[in-house]
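dumping the sequnces here before i forget
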Amino acid sequence: MSNPNTSSSGESHGSVSSYLIGFVLAVILTVLSFGVVMSHSLAPTGTLAVLSVLALVQVLVHLHYFLHMGGGSEARWNNIAFVFTVAFVSILIVGTVFVMANTSMNMMSR
Amino acid sequence: MAQNTTVPTAGHDEHHHENTVVFGFWVYLMTDCIIFGSLFATFAVLRNQFNGGPTPHELFEFGGLGLETALLLLSSITYGFGMIAAHKTQISSVIMWLGVTFLLGLGFVGLEVREFAHMIADGAGPDRSAFLSAFFTLVSTHGLHVTCGLIWIVTLMVQLMGTTEIPERMMNKLTCLSLFWHFLDIVWICVFTYVYLASMI
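..and the predicted 3d for all of it:
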């Protein structure tokens, strides 16, 4: 299928329908996030897990439908930079939380 | 990028410059991502350090949060429609969609400033506790980015007025702003999930 959403420059820029699909998905995921917290139907850890999954899926929806991330040779360096950033930020956040939790335990501030 | 120049694909090589500009802006966004990552890490560490001050349950409310989220999400899709119009060179339509995006973004910033003003007036300013310092730093950094985006939108609207075509340079500016605006919406997903909703469980 020749992709009508790809301009001559190789930058994919989406169509009205792809933006609408992304928007509807984003609205559903947002409403679910709010709903799961407002309804108090799950235990706190369960709620947090569901929230995390919903947020992750919504980020992926935005990346795909709004930022048009995807395969293709034009996008390769964008994707490499993105993967590096995700790895870097994960180490940063997980490492910080891990180290600081240990610190406060050993300092007995908790 | 060096790889791409040695393997010219049909119709791509003459637009190589454009790809470099957009790629450069993408790299900037990745560094911005690291700034927000650091602020999220700080917030994660300090989120329970209330120092006897107000807790998220007393401070946050679903109504305002939902409205802010709705405005930002809507502005994302209106900007997308603007980009589609730009690719069809429908300039008046581009300006109209940019204007709608601007108003939605302005509504978001307005709601956020109002929320902050209420909190500070109630004695829950950034100096009250470590939790509030981390909260204000993270959320206002995002708000500041949105404000910069608003200035950028107005600038492009003014530059587009009275023109009859969209040169490549202008298209680059619109594409970079599109990446910036959608990126801010992604950051907001993390903010409303981990800063607001996770604190209100």
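Helices of chain A lie at 16-38, 44-65, 76-106.
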